[in-house]
Specification:
The chain is mainly beta. It is 10% helix and 43% strand. It has 3 helices and 27 strands. The protein has a 5-stranded antiparallel beta sheet, with no helix packed on it. The protein is globular and about 90 Å long.
């Protein structure tokens, strides 16, 4: 009898221990999952859209930073068959993760892999490296770029020859400064403003050819607004098919501090711009190859939208919760993080086949 009790107690302990482990400590999962390994990982647009990147792809492997869990936080590798944690720094409420921004090659580390110590570099235009002080450093098609803190220059780094080549400057564009550049098809797209100290603001989108080192297109997208209130602030979010798409945040005086996010399109071929979406929600724009998408993260318009060739906006997916991140890392799926800021989902580009990837 006593032996049976002891065996029962051991069995209960094993069951309890297993349950606790699976709930709090398990970081290895087996699952079937298709991962498309074609194309660029879209790191620059993902980090630009989301401020920082939590999802990165290297060939047929995804890397994901899981937050806010004392025991399960960390960086995970997701492949076609398993998910496993590859970095953890012990129990912590704040957590520590591998940096998924600005990865050169597949060398993941706890720090950004793009060099920020530029003292060993020679600068093509004679600028002193200590004066560059990169405001944003990121990787485009495997090469590091540095955008200066005064928003006036963009350099490309040559890791082999230790040189920094000036790609674009405010003098070439003809402005005081320009917003964070967006890359597409060998061109750079951005927005700059004139007359910020007067009652009238002009905002221009421009296209810049890296090969020709010249502005190839320029478009007036907004003129007007008083600086004391009601001014629209435009930016360039993504560019596809010779067009730019961005947000225009507007503060309406009847609701001080309440922001509406308009999404606009600027067409360089027709030299026109127009609004294609008006929402009170938080907007993220993302693109891959020749397709652009909008994520409205919250509010009554919450959902994921596709932008057609004719610039029509169509809601393709209505989530049950708010969205806290919107990523594209291949040419087949749209990835998003749920309202808990942790659970990772994906859908296809038609808004179908919802899959829970992690969480």
């Amino acid at each position: 009898m006593r032996k049976k009790i002891i065996i029962s107690m051991i069995a209960c302990f094993i069951i309890l221990f297993s349950a606790v482990y699976l709930i709090f400590f398990n970081t290895f999962y087996i699952h079937p999952l298709k991962i498309n390994s074609s194309g660029d990982n879209n790191a620059h647009i993902n980090s630009y859209t989301n401020i920082s990147s939590r999802l990165f792809r290297v060939e047929d492997r995804l890397y994901y930073n899981y937050y806010n869990d004392l025991f399960k936080y960390g960086t995970y590798e997701i492949n076609e068959f398993t998910t496993k944690r590859i970095y953890w720094d012990g129990p912590s409420f704040s957590g520590s993760y591998l940096c998924l921004d600005n990865v050169l090659g597949d060398n993941l580390s706890t720090n950004a892999n793009v060099k920020t110590n530029l003292g060993e570099y020679t600068v093509s235009d004679g600028e002193k490296t200590e004066n560059i002080d990169p405001y944003v450093a990121y990787v485009i098609y495997g090469e590091p770029y540095y955008y200066t803190s005064d928003k006036s220059k963009l350099y490309r780094g040559d890791e082999t020859n230790k040189t920094l080549d000036l790609i674009i400057s405010n003098e070439i564009v003809g402005c005081d400064s320009f917003d964070t550049p967006v890359f597409c098809g060998g061109n750079i797209y951005s927005v700059y403003r004139n007359n910020l100290k007067s009652d009238v603001v002009e905002e221009y989108a421009f296209e810049y050819s890296i090969a020709d080192r010249a502005v190839t297109n320029k478009l007036l997208i907004h003129k007007g607004g008083e600086l004391s209130g009601g001014i629209k602030r435009y930016n360039c979010g993504v560019s596809v098919n010779g067009k730019v798409y961005g947000t225009a945040s507007d503060v309406y005086n009847e609701n001080p501090g309440y922001y509406y996010n308009d999404v606009y399109v600027g067409d360089f071929k027709s030299n026109t711009s127009k609004m294609i979406l008006h929402t009170t929600g938080t907007v993220m724009l993302n693109s891959y190859n020749d397709k652009a998408f909008i994520s409205v993260n919250d509010g009554k318009d919450r959902g994921i939208y596709s932008i057609g060739i004719d610039d029509t906006v169509t809601k393709i997916f209505s989530p049950d919760e708010n969205i806290s991140g919107f990523y594209i890392v291949d040419d087949e799926y749209l990835y998003f993080i749920g309202d808990d800021n942790n659970t990772l989902y994906r859908i296809n580009q038609q808004g179908e086949n919802l899959e829970k990837i992690f969480g």
